[in-house]
């Protein structure tokens, strides 16, 4: 007997999409995802988070496929506890952030390397880790500059981020810069994105890209939503993103993923 979601793949962003504004995944979303998987679908996550930050949510979900982390820079299999694919920042970016710190000292700068977070420059947004119990390093060891970096996160007030995003290339040169939130700008390795990682995942695990459903809320999700056959933006999402994708769904506080699965069942699935 063919199950109704056989060969379909659901990929969702976490913050602002799967996770509500209180930091939880609703029972409605969890139950809907379990139903999707029980009916033959495959489920995974595409997030800007690192391994341990994603793990505390992944453990409660039926995630059978590897998870896309760091906005596409890393693909990690939580079942096998192994990295499937990973890219690293170009060495010249390491010098660039010294310039940013020198010229715009009010901005927070975080370095992500070897699953650790190093605070290169503090601001009020870099203090969020202390509230969540994550270990971060405020002392930058000299050897960090010789290690492989996964990404850099620049943090500041929304207006600061707007200006920096608009003029970044003029001031600092061309990089793979993405806006992952009102207060977040990320630099990730060239050629990487959630969409690129999704294509890698489909090719590696023989998944039909024409049956991929993706859900997100911000501009770091754009490529993922455009490359998926059914790309949904939640109604609390970035307006630029909303204007560029075909499908819309409920906000993250109104069980967005459950609504997407319900829509899929009513409009697409033929059994």
UniProtKB/TrEMBL annotation:
It comes from Clostridium polyendosporum. CDD domains: HAD_Pase. Coiled coil: none annotated. Gene3D superfamilies: 3.30.1240.10, HAD superfamily/HAD-like. It holds the Pfam family Hydrolase_3. One of its GO terms (cellular component) is cytosol. It comes from the Bacteria. This is Haloacid dehalogenase.
């Amino acid at each position: 007997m063919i199950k109704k979601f056989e060969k379909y793949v659901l990929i969702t962003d976490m913050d602002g999409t799967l996770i509500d504004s209180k930091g939880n995944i609703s029972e409605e979303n969890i139950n809907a995802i379990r139903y999707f998987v029980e009916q033959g679908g495959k489920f995974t996550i595409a997030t800007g988070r690192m391994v341990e930050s994603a793990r505390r949510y992944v453990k409660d979900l039926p995630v059978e496929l590897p998870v896309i982390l760091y906005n596409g820079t890393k693909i990690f299999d939580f079942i096998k506890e192994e990295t499937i694919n990973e890219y690293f920042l170009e060495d010249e970016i390491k010098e660039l952030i010294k310039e940013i710190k020198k010229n715009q000292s009010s901005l927070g700068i975080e370095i992500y390397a070897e699953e650790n977070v190093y605070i290169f420059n503090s601001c009020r947004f870099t203090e969020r880790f202390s509230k969540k119990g994550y270990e971060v390093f405020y002392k930058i060891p000299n050897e960090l500059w010789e290690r492989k970096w996964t990404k850099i996160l620049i943090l500041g007030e929304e207006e600061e981020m707007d200006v920096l995003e608009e003029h970044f290339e003029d001031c600092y040169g061309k990089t793979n810069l993405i806006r992952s939130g009102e207060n977040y700008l990320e630099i990730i390795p060239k050629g990487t994105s959630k969409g690129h990682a999704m294509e890698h995942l489909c090719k590696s695990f023989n998944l039909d890209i024409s049956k991929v459903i993706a859900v997100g809320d911000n501009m770091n999700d754009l490529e993922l939503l455009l490359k998926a056959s059914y790309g949904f933006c939640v109604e609390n999402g970035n307006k630029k993103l909303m204007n560029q994708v075909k499908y819309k769904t409920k906000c993250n506080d109104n069980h967005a993923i459950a609504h997407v699965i319900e829509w899929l069942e009513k409009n697409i699935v033929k059994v």
